[in-house]
Structure formats: structure tokens, C-alpha cells
């Protein structure tokens, strides 16, 4: 795929929005750079309490340096806070702490943006000057046009809206029917049958029938089968544990993973709340693999809403909450990417 060049601040903000999938709010976003090549994109909530700026900066630096070996970064502070001429910029102490922590590791800050509700400007520029540009200008940037051409779009927030479902009783009965069939089989036979069903779905270019969706949801109710089916998603032939924790040597097939997420969302609409937790947990895992921690957390919370005792969702949410990054995102050759970009 031909590389694209990010030339303007509007391009940078468009790149961030499409890479994250939503427009950040009260967030710090950092993009790592190695020479002029873009590496990882990190979004993290801005600190809410004073006095936490240095620990916060160290956490951000840890995430940035564990991904690649960047030589510099770009950052954008998204906030509704404003400042007047002569006053400190919003979160100036945080940016100063981050500058110092990164400098200790030989990493410079190449540029920064302050993004408000209506305008954005260079972070080190004076407020209210002619350097401020309307946020709406990102909609006409060349990078935004390219992303839209490729089928990408930016949600206004990162809040997940699940598709609606109906006929819960009939769907639950259909899933239970398949679960009864699985229980009559030997463990190996049930596992092989579940894997074949899932493989056929992943290899297909069309959505499966309702009955196949019910069968998939039924298979996901059994932990041993569920884990194997989740490990089958990336298309990597390595030990299951290494796949689930995204620690394989081989790069995953990201297009296959994205298709799996669409299939699982489709299956979700064919099930009821009592069987939804494994489906939502698998979708949460996919988002963690892709480096979308906030969305992964939301899917796992939705899984726990349907079943507060669902152990995999709770353990996975604790893992993500502790700051563990999917192993694939620690290596630029295996990390999830949208489009290849360079800076001038």
C-alpha cells in the first residue's frame, strides 16, 4: 500500500481521529515517531487531580517506549479547559513533566497541539492568536478524505452503542438447543465441530445464517471451546496461550480479526442477554489486541452487566485496567495499523 504523508496539523488530528475511531475528549494523545515514520498512537485520560503529573508522565513514557524505539513524539491535548493571554496552558505541568521524563530517555517532543471544543492551535502558541484554526477544518484535510475513501469514519465519542436485539426467549431457546447437542458429544468432538463452524465463518465473505449464529454462541458458552475459538481468530499457528496474550512471533492477520469482530457483533444480535457475556468478552479481547483499551473496557463492562459473575470478563478487565498492553502492540511489525503514513 502506498504511503501517505501527513503535512498539516489538520492532517494530524484527522489521523488521530481515524486511528482511534472517535474524537477524544479530556485526553492526551501521543504519536511516536522514528525519524519521519509514524509508530504507535496512545490515548490516555488527562490527570484529574493535581500532584499526579510526574507519575502520570512516567506511565505515559512507559507505554510509548515499550511499543517501539521512538526518537520523538507528537502530542495533542484535547480539553474543554481554556486559558487567556499570559496564563499557563491547560495541563502545562503535565506536559512539562512528560517533556522531562522523555528527555531522560533521549526522546524529544517534535510538536504539540491544544485542541478545544471549537478550535485548535499550537500548544506553545499564545491563546487567541491567528494561529488558532477551527476544528471543523479537519473535515477537509487530505488525510481525512483518504480515510473516508477507505471506508473509515470518526465517531463523536468512544461510547459503544450495541445493536438492538429482540425475541430474546426464542433466541435463548435456540442457543440452549445447540448447547444440549454439544453436551452429548465428547470433548474432542465438540471442540473440532465448533472450530470447523467458526473457521467456515471466518473464511466466508458473507454473514452466517441465524442457526449458525446460535450454534456459535452455544459453543462460546463452554470455556474450553471459547478459548480455542478466540485463539483461532488471528490466524496464527502458535501455542494458544501466546495467541490469547498477543505474544506470538508471527504477526496476526488483522483483516481476519476485524472480520471476526463483525461476525461476533452479528451473532450478538441473534442471542439473548443470558448468553451474551462470552460474545461481548471476545469482542473486548479483540479491541485489546488492537490497542483500543477504552473500548475493550466498555465491552467487558457490558459483558459483566449481562453476567456479573462472568470470570473471563472480570479477569480481562482487571488485566487491562492494570495497564497491560497487548504484546503485538509492543512491536511495530506486529502492531495493529490502519494505513501507512510518513511525516514530511
Catalogue the unreliable spans.
none
- Largest sheet data: 6 strands, mixed
Order of helices and strands: EHEEHEHEEEHHHHHHHHHHE
The residue-averaged pLDDT reads 89
Distance between the termini: 18 Å
Order of adjacent strands in the largest pleated sheet? 3-2-4-5-6-7
Instruction: State the helical fraction.
Output: 40-55%
Tell me the total number of β-strands.
8
Number of helices: 13
Identify the overall geometry: elongated
Beta-strand residue fraction: 5-15%
Question: Structural class per helix/strand content?
Answer: alpha/beta
Rg, rounded, reads 22 Å
Q: What descriptors fit this protein?
A:
344 residues, alpha/beta, 6-stranded mixed beta sheet, two-stranded parallel ribbon, 8 strands, 12% strand
Please provide a written account of the structure.
The mean pLDDT is 89. A six-stranded mixed sheet has the order 3-2-4-5-6-7, sandwiched between helices. The chain has 13 helices and eight strands. With 344 residues, the chain is an alpha/beta fold. The longest helix has 17 residues, at 187-203.
Q: What is this structure, in a nutshell?
A:
With 344 residues, the chain is of the alpha/beta class. The protein has 13 helices and eight strands.
Q: How do the strands and helices of this protein lay out in sequence?
A:
Layout: E1 4-5, H1 9-20, E2 27-34, E3 37-45, H2 53-67, E4 72-78, H3 92-104, E5 108-115, E6 119-122, E7 133-134, H4 142-149, H5 168-183, H6 187-203, H7 210-220, H8 223-232, H9 240-244, H10 254-268, H11 277-289, H12 293-306, H13 311-321, E8 341-342
Parallel strand pairs: 1-8, 4-5
Antiparallel strand pairs: 2-3, 2-4, 5-6, 6-7
Helix pairs in contact: 1-4, 2-3, 5-7, 6-7, 6-8, 10-11, 11-12, 11-13, 12-13
Amino acid at each position: 500500500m502506498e504511503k501517505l504523508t501527513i503535512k498539516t496539523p489538520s492532517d494530524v488530528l484527522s489521523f488521530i481521529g481515524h486511528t482511534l475511531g472517535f474524537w477524544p475528549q479530556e485526553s492526551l494523545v501521543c504519536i511516536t515517531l522514528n525519524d519521519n515514520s509514524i509508530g504507535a498512537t496512545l490515548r490516555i485520560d488527562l490527570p484529574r487531580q493535581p500532584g499526579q503529573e510526574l507519575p502520570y508522565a512516567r506511565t505515559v513514557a512507559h507505554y510509548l517506549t515499550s511499543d517501539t524505539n521512538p526518537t520523538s513524539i507528537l502530542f495533542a491535548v484535547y480539553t474543554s479547559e481554556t486559558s487567556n493571554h499570559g496564563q499557563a496552558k491547560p495541563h502545562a505541568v503535565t506536559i512539562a513533566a512528560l517533556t522531562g521524563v522523555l528527555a531522560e530517555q533521549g526522546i524529544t517532543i517534535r510538536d504539540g497541539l491544544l485542541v478545544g471544543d471549537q478550535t485548535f492551535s499550537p500548544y506553545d502558541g499564545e491563546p487567541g492568536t491567528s494561529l488558532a484554526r477551527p476544528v471543523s477544518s479537519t473535515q477537509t484535510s487530505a488525510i481525512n478524505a483518504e480515510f473516508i475513501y477507505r471506508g473509515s469514519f470518526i465517531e463523536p465519542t468512544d461510547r459503544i452503542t450495541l445493536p438492538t436485539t429482540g425475541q430474546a426467549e426464542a433466541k435463548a431457546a435456540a442457543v440452549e438447543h445447540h448447547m444440549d447437542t454439544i453436551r452429548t458429544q465428547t470433548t474432542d468432538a465438540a471442540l473440532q465441530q465448533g472450530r470447523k463452524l467458526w473457521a467456515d465463518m471466518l473464511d466466508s465473505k458473507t454473514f452466517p445464517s441465524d442457526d449458525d449464529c446460535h450454534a456459535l454462541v452455544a459453543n462460546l458458552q463452554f470455556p474450553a471451546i471459547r478459548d480455542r475459538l478466540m485463539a483461532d481468530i488471528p490466524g496464527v499457528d502458535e501455542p494458544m496461550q501466546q495467541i490469547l496474550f498477543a505474544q506470538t512471533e508471527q504477526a496476526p492477520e488483522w483483516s481476519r480479526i476485524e472480520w471476526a469482530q463483525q461476525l461476533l457483533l452479528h451473532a450478538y444480535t441473534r442471542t439473548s442477554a443470558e448468553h451474551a457475556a462470552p460474545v461481548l468478552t471476545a469482542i473486548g479481547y479483540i479491541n485489546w489486541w488492537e490497542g483500543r483499551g477504552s473500548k475493550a473496557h466498555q465491552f467487558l463492562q457490558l459483558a459483566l452487566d449481562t453476567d456479573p459473575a462472568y470470570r473471563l470478563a472480570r479477569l480481562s478487565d482487571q488485566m487491562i485496567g492494570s495497564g497491560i498492553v497487548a504484546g503485538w502492540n509492543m512491536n511495530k511489525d506486529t502492531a495493529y495499523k490502519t494505513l501507512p503514513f510518513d511525516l514530511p
